[in-house]
Amino acid sequence: xxxxxxxxxxxxxxxxxxxxxxxxxxxxxxxxxxxxxxxxxxxxxxxxxxxxxxxxxxxxxxxxxxxxxxxxxxxxxxxxxxxxxxxxxxxxxxxxxxxxxxxxxxxxxxxxxxxxxxxxxxxxxxxxxxxxxxxxxxxxxxxxxxxxxxxxxxxxxxxxxxxxxxxxxxxxxxxxxxxxxxxxxxxxxxxxxxxxxxxxxxxxxxxxxxxxxxxxxxxxxxxxxxxxxxxxxxxxxxxxxxxxxxxxxxxxxxxxxxxxxxxxxxxxxxxxxxxxxxxxxxxxxxxxxxxxxxxxxxxxxxxxxxxxxxxxxxxxxxxxxxxxxxxxxxxxxxxxx
Length: 337
Ligand SMILES: [Zn+2]
Known about the structure:
Blueprint: H1 6-16, E1 20-24, H2 28-41, E2 45-50, H3 51-56, H4 60-72, E3 78-85, H5 88-97, E4 101-104, E5 118-119, H6 124-139, E6 144-149, E7 153-156, E8 159-161, H7 169-179, E9 183-186, E10 191-192, H8 205-214, E11 219-222, H9 230-238, H10 251-260, E12 264-267, H11 269-285, H12 292-313, H13 328-335
Parallel strand pairs: 1-2, 1-12, 2-3, 3-4, 4-6, 5-8, 6-9, 7-10, 9-11, 11-12
Antiparallel strand pairs: 7-8
Helix pairs in contact: 2-4, 2-12, 5-6, 7-8, 8-10, 9-11, 11-12
């Protein structure tokens, strides 16, 4: 089966009331680990690449790794998604590469970088204008679009949101109607990275229900949804790492968020932690090893274990065969004419 448009998979998730993991990838081991988990649990999966990942992998390498995942798993719905596209140009590049979904993050103005490395928030009207341009371009090609309203905290690559502004439910309906986005990233208090909260996690879960009521047919997206498992943080620190008190969103809160109306759950940090913890341990315990297959293989197994559990916990497992996946041409004909 070819790569699938994201809208179809998230529509199914909305009807079935489960969450689909969107996992950031930039190398072979991550992709293999995720695909092993997805294949064993029969899970539809979103593989996503940020601008940083595209740069790191020289784009075409990552594209072919994802196509290899498709070839190896012809019976799983797989989406290839651009995470945090900063402008129309980057979205066009991703679509030309064959991505079946793009995010345009027009909530921040990436063309302006402040002294602290952060980007200022964009005005609502500017966000609407840029997101609409991307939707017009992408939808003509059957490609799904995720927009963002409100800003997330923390660091993703070199991107810092200087201020965290929760999504205003009053703006959501107008934003979706005017732009035509298929999915909307909402800010409910999560942030990117391993240091999401100082004490206990505080998410504005009620906001999800309020937003869900305004846009009952739009997929809602939760960024910064890693749980930062403490056993991984401890393992990293035990084998020479120096992570400070890191804290994420517990799976219990993610499950609640899915019940209230989230369909796409973005996970990056937990994969990084699992990979790093396993490689640190392997190298510390096997000081004579210099075959990279040994420690990268250990990293791959660690990602597989952590992610497979998430696929089961978020309710995605078992849903791969529920529907006949569409091509981009079919998506265009059905939704964007
Ligand atoms: Zn994000």
